[in-house]
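User: Please fill in residues for this 413-position structure.
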């Protein structure tokens, strides 16, 4: 992962996290404010009804109120319940002239009562008295606690730090995975290059043996040594190994994301004919055949000849390998106003519908039927899909178990 890309991602995350904290802080402050206002309105509504009922009480000669103070508690709790507040407040009756409480339901909470904003003027018989009386309520365990912005901010910062830690950990894990993937690709590249050397040596030795055998055959036309047959087998298997190594190498390069192809005019019919000749002995040896319908005119597209050859080779090779009986492969080409269309059809064992979406994944192999009886690494069709993508084309698979498969590749003209 490039440094500048990582820096951009971290910056975006930091901006989003800070914005989230600000939005949540503002929204929570607003929620607490609305809750407080609704609570205050409900308390005021209940106390208005309490005051209305108490205004009929008479004063004693000494200015005290002639009623049972316990009844005051019950009346207030009852009215609070009617407005939806299921709480038992501390209640006090305060004499403003003397600066003392005539009554408090909890004498230990008188300091809290003096600081409480829930203070209501009480005028017995509706007459203004020289001794102002107040009913004071206090809610020491309010269901709606006061909003502490600092505490909430600290909680938000802590949660953001936890998320940021997980985010950084994820980035480091992704970076390590990419580093390991790069090391794997480098290993595959080095390994395939090393394997290419003995393959080239075998190929050269095989050509020299073929030349020697040809001279011997011309000199002795009566009896022909089976050496030429063995040399042909060696040559065919060497070519197959060369293609496998090249497929692994190119697939590893393509997975890097920066792979570029070299485009030129390519004759697809010439490629198909060459691939057919490569498989002719193998197919005929199993009693099968390759059928062609090359109808595209002209058969020219712009692409990379090496990779297009490997693409056709892999599709035909799959059709042959996954045929339980004598392989029969049909290769057809056509052309419309926008695309060159290549179809490779076989009459093999087919691919289950559940696996058809995954056959183009790297290292994926179908695990049902007799598929595991065929050797492979699960990179052939993935390589084909990557070649198609690099040529801005599309590939489609139609298959039915027991009846075979058809791969349709479309290249833009």
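Assistant: Residues filled in for all 413 positions:
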């Amino acid at each position: 992962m490039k440094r500048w890309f990582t820096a951009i991602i971290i910056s975006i995350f930091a901006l989003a996290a800070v914005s989230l904290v600000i939005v949540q802080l503002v929204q929570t402050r607003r929620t607490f404010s609305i809750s407080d206002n609704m609570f205050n309105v409900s308390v005021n509504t209940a106390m208005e009804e309490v005051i209305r009922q108490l205004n009929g009480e008479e004063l004693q000669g000494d200015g005290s109120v002639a009623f049972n103070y316990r009844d005051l508690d019950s009346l207030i709790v009852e009215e609070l319940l009617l407005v939806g507040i299921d709480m038992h407040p501390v209640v006090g009756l305060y004499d403003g002239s003397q600066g003392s409480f005539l009554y408090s339901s909890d004498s230990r909470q008188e300091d809290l009562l003096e600081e409480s904003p829930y203070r209501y003027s009480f005028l017995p018989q509706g007459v203004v008295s020289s001794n102002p009386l107040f009913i004071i309520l206090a809610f020491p365990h309010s269901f709606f606690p006061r909003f502490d912005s600092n505490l909430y901010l600290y909680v938000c910062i802590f949660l953001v730090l936890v998320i940021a830690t997980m985010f950084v950990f994820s980035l480091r894990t992704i970076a390590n995975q990419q580093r390991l993937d790069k090391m794997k690709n480098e290993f595959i590249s080095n390994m395939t290059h090393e394997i290419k050397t003995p393959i080239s040596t075998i190929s050269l030795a095989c050509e020299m043996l073929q030349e020697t055998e040809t001279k011997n055959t011309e000199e002795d036309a009566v009896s022909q040594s089976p050496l030429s047959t063995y040399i042909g087998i060696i040559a065919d298997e060497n070519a197959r190994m060369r293609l496998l190594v090249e497929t692994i190498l190119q697939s590893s390069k393509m997975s890097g994301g920066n792979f570029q192809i070299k485009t030129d005019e390519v004759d697809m019919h010439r490629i198909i004919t060459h691939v057919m000749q490569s498989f002719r002995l193998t197919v005929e040896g199993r009693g099968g055949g390759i059928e062609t319908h090359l109808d595209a005119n002209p058969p020219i597209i712009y692409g990379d000849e090496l990779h297009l050859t490997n693409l056709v080779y892999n599709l035909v090779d799959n059709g042959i390998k996954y045929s339980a009986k004598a392989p029969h492969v049909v290769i057809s080409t056509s052309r419309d106003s926008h695309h060159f269309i290549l179809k490779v059809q076989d009459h093999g064992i087919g691919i289950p519908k559940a696996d058809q979406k995954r056959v183009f994944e790297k290292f994926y192999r179908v695990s049902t039927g007799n598929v595991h009886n065929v050797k492979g690494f699960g990179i052939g069709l993935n390589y084909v899909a990557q070649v198609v993508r690099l040529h801005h084309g599309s590939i489609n698979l139609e298959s039915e178990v027991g009846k075979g498969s058809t791969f349709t590749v479309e290249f833009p003209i």
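For context: Residues 149-219 form the longest helix (71 residues).
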